[in-house]
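#lab-general

N.A. 3:47 PM
ok so I finally got the sequence cleaned up, no stray characters, all 139 residues accounted for. can someone with queue access submit it? mine expired

B.Y. 3:52 PM
send it over

N.A. 3:53 PM
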Amino acid sequence: MNFLNRYADTVYCIMRLIVGLMFFCHGAQKILGWFPDPKHAAGPLPPLMLLGGWVELVCGLLLAVGLLTRIAAFLASGEMAVGFFMFHASGGSLVPLVNHGELAVAYCFLFLFIFFYGPGAWSIDGLIARSRGAQTAPA
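B.Y. 4:20 PM
back already:
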């Protein structure tokens, strides 16, 4: 199945785009009031959730377009780890299925993977790296 390797970077960049946009939507829900959730009461957010919303909003967009990708992924992964332990695991159970923290754990490890893998070819970071390489190449 080595023929699939030629699509790996393309699929990775599409995954980074989709995951970044989904993360952005979580921030847009908290900060901008988009996609209202009837299960949660409207009103001012606690400061920690407000900070988390801004991280989701900004890092989600940065990840989606591939700008400052590693920094954004590191911050987003850390936010999800903090969110899991402070909000989901605080009830006494560390099992994500029991404390409903599956999405936080999945995001945390997706962002950790993006942090280590990097932006990929289809990203603003990739464009910047290619243009710098072209400038320094001998004519």
